[in-house]
Amino acid sequence: MLKPFEVHVQGRSLACFQPELTEAEWEALQAHAAQAREHMAGRTVWNVNSTARGGGVAEMLPRMLAYARGAGVDTRWMVVQGTPAFFRITKRLHHALHGSRGDGSPLGPAERACYDEVLRDNAEELLVLVRPGDVVLLHDPQTAGLAPTLASAGARVVWRCHIGCDTPDEEVERAWAFLAPGLVAARLAVFSRASYVPPLLADRSVVIPPSIDIFAVKNQPMAPEVASAILGHTGLVALAPESPAPVFTRTDGVPAHVSRGVDIVRLGSAPAPGSPLVVQVSRWDPLKDPVGVLRGFSLLLRDSPGLCADLILAGPSVASVADDPEAAATLENVIAVWREQPRFLRQRVHLASLPMVDPEENAAIVNALQRHAAVVVQKSLREGFGLTITEAMWKARPVVASAVGGLQDQVRHEVDGLLVRDPAALPEFAAALRRLLEEPVLAARLGTEAHEHVRLHYTAVRHLKDLVALLEQLDARAGRSA
């Protein structure tokens, strides 16, 4: 029998934000925390998703929960478990909500029975824990089917969809038809963009963009020489002479060393410590278009063979993300395309699978890679919201992103980054890379603007304010129902 498990999160005081805020912003944050405590007095906020590591939801939840707990709100995190067949179905739904066929497999009665059976098993344990009046935030297609059972137990159920499609098609409609029976019981639904809201949820949806935690290991300040040392010790770049120790600070304040290496597919040696890097960090997912990034970079080098730059495509170890059955096949496809390239291109392209055993060590490696990068890209074909591009912008890195989904909200073209209007247009992508690699003044200006844009719009301060407003709406709807 499948049972969900709890991920324990230590509370963190909101006081760490005070030095980053104006006096008025700090007072507003304290007021929002007081409102949250008042709304949730004697009750618990449960977050339920399908993996404890890998992907954007698992990235955001522990940090948001830590601040909520630090603000005095009892907030907990449960992870449902599933079978390989269940995760194949939910990955198919993931693709369909993006308007993509994925593997083209059916979403019929047999898939419905499998989906319902897995969630029925998980629901039994949740029903022991969730009390009437508690708020349950269900994340993404993997958990939507839990809504009726939890709502019937008296919980105030909210479904949080982190993905979507700006131009719904037949695939999107197929996904909504599959999910509709569960979503009927959701009191509210949360989306990252208004264009993602389907008609069936139009009367009970709110828009809350995701955010990053600026104090997380992945985003903490890191000296350039330390970033270079971490990348050198992992094998991502050549280790510079007399490098400092590859150290970072854990969430609890304890210093730690990066000790694990990175599994890398490459031809020849690692890039020199000073070599400009073009970097994409993402899951091994075809919608992230790692093959397109590789081919676009190859086009750039063919047109400008004298350009000094290497490409690193980095993603999590494919065995580490439980709810993504396509990762291994996607990585194999990227490697196959890499092998097709001429020798001089293969020497400049590095495919990196990052260790995930220690999530904070992984975060430190990503932090170092983004800070060391000359350009950070996210050339997704579809994207609900690109956390990695926001992380890079916080680090004042120049970015290139596809003008799809949430990426076109995060990046303002020519203001704090460059957008590629057609993600399939490799010449446009290559031209954007060339601009940022050849125009350091432009790259620096965009990076500076990017940092401020994230500070104002995409940190936990704004996110906590939005979540308080969500709790107020839930209470208002509960009052009307009563």
TrEMBL record:
SUPFAM superfamilies: UDP-Glycosyltransferase/glycogen phosphorylase. Residues 47-198 form the Trehalose synthase N-terminal domain. GO terms for biological process: glucose metabolic process. Keywords: Carbohydrate metabolism, Glucose metabolism, Glycosyltransferase, Transferase. It comes from the Bacteria. One of its GO terms (molecular function) is glycosyltransferase activity. Residues 365-452 form the Glycosyl transferase family domain. Belongs to the glycosyltransferase group 1 family. Glycosyltransferase 4 subfamily. Homodimer. This is Glycosyltransferase. It comes from Corallococcus aberystwythensis.
